[in-house]
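We were asked to recover a plausible sequence for a given structure. The inputs and outputs are reproduced exactly as logged, with field labels preserved.

PROBLEM: sequence recovery
POSITIONS: 388
GIVEN STRUCTURE:
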């Protein structure tokens, strides 16, 4: 199929879409990426965890499809006999609830069970028996993923998509998109900061947290903003056997990371747009995270922070869910952005489904209809309650 597709943004969403377009549909997209080192890309700074504990069925289905893809990753994205590895492990997610949150956990659990997710609801005594290192003080219920939840090397997944896309004929060019040429409802070209103009038949906007200014150049308002999230890496004197990714009722999360641990919590500074990534809020760890860690896991009383990093969630302020599908008002433009902290895990399914949508070809990935940006115009939010 000869169709000139241009993708703006070569992070995991753009790379996955380019990969499936080329591999499955013979469409060799041009991917415009301003920073081939990915120094600020969310995909390079992700905690890269995957779960099925969402409140929206479409999110569960996308993650299930993606997980199955990750299990076959070596075969799916092999290039010249080299099979990529992403170190996927599946210790599960453990959502903890106080009495106030138990009903929500039960409601979400019912939705997850219907979608085929294996999630166990555990009373405090069961939690205590299963995780002797956990304090169940103040807890009424926990929801533990028994299968299909864990974490992996996200940057390696992005690079694997990129390599496979290139091997199948996609082209990555280093340039910054600054605008578009259009006639009526059709985009004809992408204009770049270096003065180049790249003609295109189809446009995909996959610029992550920076998608809104580009959409504005097309007269479309996308409610996607760069929201900084700090991640702290720490050592603890004790190992926590079978430690899942734990989400405390207040929003604190932690998980194992090899011999170390990662933790994060909602920001405490009003969550401004695009603060510098090197402005790590170390007080967040000392004053908020560490006291909560020590209260939930007594062995975390004596932790030592080793390092920290920050990246931007590409936060969709409308409903905290991905925007994936046709851009309203245009006949040849699509987007995949705004995944609000769960885009890494959904990139395989979104890339496959979007490539099929663009080409009119086939994919057995879940349909993206529920995530189409059209819902913005209709004022119809698809609220995801489980945003970490
Ligand atoms: C701290 C943190 C933890 C996270 N944890 C998880 C997790 O546990 N699980 C999960 O699933 N997800 C997680 N995420 C979210 C996940 O990483 C993102 O959803 C995903 O990486 C988004 O990919 P993307 O390709 O849309 O965006 P990006 O990776 O940001 O890629 C967008 C690319 O577009 C380029 N670009 C932007 N503007 C232009 C332009 N004008 N011209 C050319 N190029 C441009 C950028 O340089 C960038 O490389 C986390 C994110 C962060 C920051």
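RECOVERED SEQUENCE:
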């Amino acid at each position: 199929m000869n169709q000139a597709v241009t993708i703006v943004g070569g992070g995991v969403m753009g790379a996955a879409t380019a990969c499936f377009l080329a591999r499955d549909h013979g469409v060799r997209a041009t991917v415009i990426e301003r920073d081939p080192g990915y120094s600020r890309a969310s995909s390079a700074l992700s905690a890269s965890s995957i779960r099925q504990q969402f409140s929206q069925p479409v999110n569960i289905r996308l993650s299930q499809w993606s997980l199955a893809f990750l299990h076959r990753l070596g075969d799916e994205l092999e290039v010249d006999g080299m099979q990529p590895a992403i170190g996927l492990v599946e210790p599960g997610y453990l959502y903890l609830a106080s009495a106030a949150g138990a009903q929500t956990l039960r409601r979400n659990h019912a939705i997850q069970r219907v979608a085929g997710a294996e999630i166990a609801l555990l009373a405090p005594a069961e939690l205590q028996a299963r995780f002797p290192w956990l304090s169940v003080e103040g807890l009424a219920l926990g929801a533990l993923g028994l299968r299909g939840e864990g974490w992996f090397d996200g940057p390696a997944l992005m690079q694997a998509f990129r390599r496979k896309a290139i091997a199948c004929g996609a082209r990555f060019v280093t340039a910054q998109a600054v605008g578009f040429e259009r006639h009526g409802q059709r985009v004809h070209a992408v204009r770049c900061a270096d003065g180049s103009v790249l003609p295109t038949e189809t446009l995909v906007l996959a610029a992550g947290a920076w998608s809104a200014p580009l959409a504005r150049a097309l007269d479309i308002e996308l409610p996607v903003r760069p929201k900084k999230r700090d991640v702290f890496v720490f050592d603890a004197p004790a190992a926590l056997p079978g430690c899942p990714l734990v989400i405390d009722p207040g929003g604190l999360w932690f998980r194992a990371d090899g011999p170390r641990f990662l933790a994060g919590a909602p920001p405490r500074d009003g969550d401004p747009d695009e603060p510098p990534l090197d402005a790590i809020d170390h007080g967040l760890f000392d004053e908020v995270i560490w006291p909560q860690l020590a209260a939930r896991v007594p062995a975390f009383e004596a932790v030592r922070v080793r390092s920290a990093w920050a990246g931007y969630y590409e936060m969709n302020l409308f409903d905290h869910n991905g925007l994936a599908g046709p851009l309203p008002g245009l006949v040849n433009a699509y987007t995949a952005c705004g995944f609000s902290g769960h885009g890494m895990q959904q990139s395989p399914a979104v890339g496959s489904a979007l490539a099929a949508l663009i080409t009119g070809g086939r994919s057995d990935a879940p349909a993206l209809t529920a995530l189409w940006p059209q819902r913005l115009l209709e004022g119809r939010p698809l609220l995801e309650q489980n945003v970490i």
